[in-house]
Amino acid sequence: MKLLINIIRNLLGGLIAAIDFITRGSKLKRTQEAQEQVTVELEKLSLYQFFACPFCIKTRRAMYKLNLPMVKRNASEGSPYRDELLQGGGKIQTPCLRIEKDDSVEWLYESSAIISYLEKRFV
Ligand SMILES: N[C@@H](CCC(=O)N[C@@H](CS)C(=O)NCC(=O)O)C(=O)O
């Protein structure tokens, strides 16, 4: 039963990901200098996610539109990043944005909160 639910979830997620890919449109354009600055800032950010999770797709779509080519970590079962997420953030829930600060690390859960954070910081 669990296997069947997983198959349906992955099929639906794959379908949503494909529709997202086809319909996501254009990304934010910055000057080369501004985009290089963004690239430097992105070295401190990473997104823990599942490929077929609708909340992750929504977050990746916002990241694409904001032109934020950030590192993505697959937190599926069997991946070492799953354990990192659990140890660092405290729970297995995706998406989760890992934000490296000067002397600490913040783990930001909730797709809407992640998107608001990225929009405030990068628009
Ligand atoms: N309200 C959350 C919902 C996130 C959520 O439910 N994520 C699911 C995947 S789609 C999850 O992490 N479930 C835990 C698990 O699969 O172990 C958001 O908007 O980010």
TrEMBL record:
Pfam families documented for this protein: GST_N_3 (PF13417)
InterPro entries: Glutathione_S-Trfase_N, Thioredoxin-like_sf
Transmembrane segments: none
Listed Gene3D superfamilies: Glutaredoxin
PROSITE patterns: GLUTAREDOXIN_2, GST_NTER
Domain GST N-terminal: 43-123
Domain of life (superkingdom): Bacteria
Name of the protein: Glutaredoxin
Organism name: Paraglaciecola psychrophila 170
Highest classification ranks of the organism: Bacteria, Pseudomonadati, Pseudomonadota, Gammaproteobacteria, Alteromonadales
